[in-house]
User: Fold this.
Amino acid sequence: MMRPMALMGVLAIASTPTLAQTHAGYPIQMTPATGGEGTVDQADTNAYSLPQRNLSMTKRLDFSVGNSFFRNPWVEAPASTDARDGLGPLFNTNSCQGCHVKDGRGHPPGVDEPPVSLFLRLAVPADPDRDADILRKHGFKPAPVYGSQLQTAALPAAKPEADLVIEWRPVKKTLADGTVVELRKPVYRIENPNYGPLPDNLLVSPRVAPQMIGMGLLEAIPIDDLRALHDPDDTDNNGISGKLNQVWDLATEQTLPGRFGWKAAEPDVHQQSMGAFAGDMGLTSSLKPATDCTSEQRCERFTHGGEPEVSDKVANFVTFYARSLAVPARRNLDSESVQKGAKLFNEIGCAGCHTPRHQTGEVADRPDLSNQTIWPYTDLLLHDMGPALADGRDEFLANGNEWRTPPLWGTGLAQVVNPQSGFLHDGRARTLEEAVLWHGGEALPAVEQYSQMPADERSALIDFLNSL
Ligand SMILES: [Ca+2]
Ligand SMILES: [Ca+2]
Ligand SMILES: [Ca+2]
Assistant:
């Protein structure tokens, strides 16, 4: 296979042991190979869409089959293309790619646009005793009639659940040197509910589609390494109390650690992907034989036979694809400002949650994912992020203030891949600086230090984030 010279450079650096360097107790990344040997060297609009560079030739075929089911729209059943039918009747959009734009993030809708890549998860308050079984298996109590998620689209013969309207309120932040940054906070309104009134005690949690890169590598971080970071009572006294979520695993019917989603409510990429087929697209699979359509919404008339709408074969191709998207290489490692920003990131405590480095374990049949040194900048743990980001809706062990630390690798390319990309769980942050300034709760000391920094140090930190 032809390989541009620059890729060879990444390979050479990845396989040469680099001198370990730390600063303020956390490692400093000296190699551009953020995703280990699978790292790719493309930094354009396709930067998130490439297979792991070290993926074998035969597996690249599986990747492209998975890609076609991820990218192409699913349609109403029965259809001549019966490999991709069964959409709906309730859904948010008709393809994975419709939300994970170019395998990247989604964004909140623009003015007068319907929301596509942002949706609301729903719940009502639960009683820990009476609802114990529901809580164990769902992590929350779904809303009556409307279920676990608000589907804002439907097949022509059905009705969407409702319209979602977002209003933006300006919020001003003044930094120590007098610089004023204007943030925006979303307010959600659900209008025109089509299946009866919404419950008064409805809890909503907005979620925007995250980037898809490096999922297989994150899945390959040994759970004991995450357990070692888990510190819910902050016994090491660094002000940070990461918590590992514990969630329901459908395949083995037991409670396991959670890693994926904004509240780490899914144990692995496969269950997350089958959850997306069911909740976001109205497609059943053998792991998720029911969609979010409740009995009151009467969706039986849209089912054609008892077979899963997504066959096991297609399900496995899509999961393979979702696990195999490569992480792009670091850029501008030689820049003085980037190097300064990397040190500041460690000094002011960003690295306390955004854990720079991990080592993957052994993954059966996936040498490309095994035993890699990776730089994802996440601990995959839950943290209290304060009231401004809170959704007030629990999900398994995650309470209404808590979110999982998102990986920061590749984040500097988010708006190259999709210029409309937003940051944070609801896409409210239009820039990386806005994302930083929204941090509260356990991250407050870090943000306060950011706000005190002179302009050149602030831009060094942002240059560092942009180099990821
Ligand atoms: Ca269906
Ligand atoms: Ca629903
Ligand atoms: Ca701690």
